[in-house]
Design goal:
Layout (H helix, E strand, L loop, with lengths): L4 E12 L3 H11 L5 E4 L7 H7 L6 E2 L3 H6 L5 H10 L2 H10 L4 E3 L4 E4 L5 H13 L3 E3 L3 E5 L5 E5 L2 E12 L24 E7 L3 E2 L4 H7 L3 E9 L2 E9 L3 E3 L1 H5 L1 H11 L2 E6 L6 H8 L8 H8 L4 H12 L7 H6 L1 E5 L1 E2 L7 E6 L16 E3 L13 H23 L3
Parallel strand pairs: 1-2, 1-9, 2-6, 9-19
Antiparallel strand pairs: 3-5, 4-5, 7-8, 8-9, 10-18, 11-14, 11-17, 12-13, 12-15, 13-14, 15-16
Helix pairs in contact: 1-14, 4-14
Length: 409
């Protein structure tokens, strides 16, 4: 049975997706005076944001803007105008205007003092409601009809809408159980879409049974990782299947591409980046005959049990044991496959940039704009992901409202 068509009015903006980009698009559009309605297929909004908030909700980063923009790699040129229009300082001010004070952590990352997302989201949803923004949950976008109407599946059946403009904020495909499942890629026929791939994820390592069973879940703190020209410091966690954590995520893009090209990638792990190789060699040069290698590395090199296990694993795997200091400073870590989208923090790929205008309108679909993680970009963790989602959401919302408000009435 065909559902009746419901005209929402030429001035109305419909935002599809209630994640950070979609909510920001709705706020920006409502701020111009346009009527705004948000549709989301989940029972409640911003589920991934709430999960991210459990770890502190890293909103943005305090580093110099030019260095900040460099984190977006090939997508910098397209993202830069939107981030400069809504930079980290503006995001911090926006957050504090919602009553959520922020602070800068020791790494330069910016967090709300509450260290979680729920207070911010409650305040944000309340402000959107005050601006007249409607939110309809359990509304899944089904694409467009031949005559351009927006189709949505609702608990009451399919409905068709005719907004003045539409913002698509459908996310990527990481943690699909939280809402962003990538199903939208089948609903934009004719549009070039780069395949959605995991980003900021861990990698599979062929651990020995001993290391896997004894050290799965163990942290590796204050380490460094390098791969080719890329390097990062941070922490990691050994898992049953491999390794993950901030220092791994920082290099996940080049590692993923190398594995796609050759089937594996070998990164170099520095277990004591704060000590030079020469100093480390002096510390471990003398070893009492009765002292085990494990105890010697713990006392002389200051290695943790999981770090010692990695050294011993490398030696058993054929790494030269003559120069332990060199091995500690550049331990080969063979990675065989990235963890999947279900475990990735974010995703790479998405709607190709050649498909959107500078104001984020989809060229093939006049009046339809795209924003957030569904666009083809990726960035490391550290606040860069949310910053770009907020900034592109704001840009798309403003452009959609301008389109809708300029339409003939």
């Amino acid at each position: 049975m065909n559902a009746p068509q419901r005209q929402t009015g030429a001035r109305c903006v419909i935002v599809i997706g209630a994640g950070p980009a979609g909510l920001m698009a709705a706020e920006a559009a409502a701020g111009t005076g346009a009527p705004v309605t948000i549709l989301d297929h989940m029972p409640s909004p911003a589920r991934k944001l709430l999960i991210a908030g459990r770890g502190g909700l890293n909103l943005t980063h305090s580093e110099a803007l030019d260095r900040f923009l460099g984190r977006y790699g090939a997508a910098r040129e397209r993202l830069e105008p939107h981030i400069r229009a809504f930079p980290p300082s503006a995001l911090i001010a926006w957050c504090e205007a919602l009553g959520q004070e922020t602070f800068i952590g020791s790494s330069g990352r910016v967090f709300p003092k509450a260290m979680k997302a729920s207070p911010l989201l409650r305040a944000w949803l309340a402000r959107l409601a005050e601006h007249g923004v409607g939110l309809r949950t359990r509304h899944r976008w089904l694409g467009f009809t031949e005559d351009g109407l927006l189709r949505a599946a609702t608990p009451q059946g399919e409905t068709r809408l005719a907004p003045g403009a539409t913002v698509l904020a459908l996310g990527g495909a990481s943690w699909p159980g939280l809402g962003a499942d990538g199903a939208w890629t089948a609903l934009l026929p004719g549009c070039a879409i780069a395949p959605l791939r995991p980003s900021n994820m861990g990698f599979a390592v062929a651990w020995s049974e001993h290391l896997r069973n004894r050290f799965a879940g163990a942290p590796l703190k204050r380490i460094a990782l390098s791969f080719g020209e890329h390097a990062a410091r941070g922490e990691a966690v050994i898992t049953q299947r491999g390794i993950e954590g901030g220092v791994i995520y920082a290099l996940s893009a080049p590692l993923r591409e190398a594995i796609a090209a050759t089937g594996e990638a070998t990164a170099l792990l520095d277990l004591r980046p704060d000590i030079s190789a020469e100093d480390l060699a002096r510390r471990i040069a003398r070893r009492a005959p009765a002292t085990t290698l494990s105890n010697h590395l713990r006392r002389a090199a200051g290695l943790s049990p999981p770090a010692i296990a990695l050294v011993q694993e490398a030696i058993r795997g054929g790494a030269p044991a003559e120069d332990i200091a060199a091995l500690i400073k550049a331990l080969p870590l063979r990675l065989f496959a990235p963890f999947g989208l279900d475990r990735a923090i974010s995703s790479a790929g998405g709607l190709a940039w050649q498909e959107v205008e500078p104001d984020l309108m989809i060229r093939r679909l006049p009046g339809v704009f795209a924003c957030g993680e569904m666009l083809d970009w990726e960035a490391p963790t550290g606040g860069y992901l949310l910053q770009a989602c907020f900034a592109t959401g704001r840009a798309a919302g403003q452009a959609a409202a301008a389109w809708a408000l300029s339409a003939p009435r």
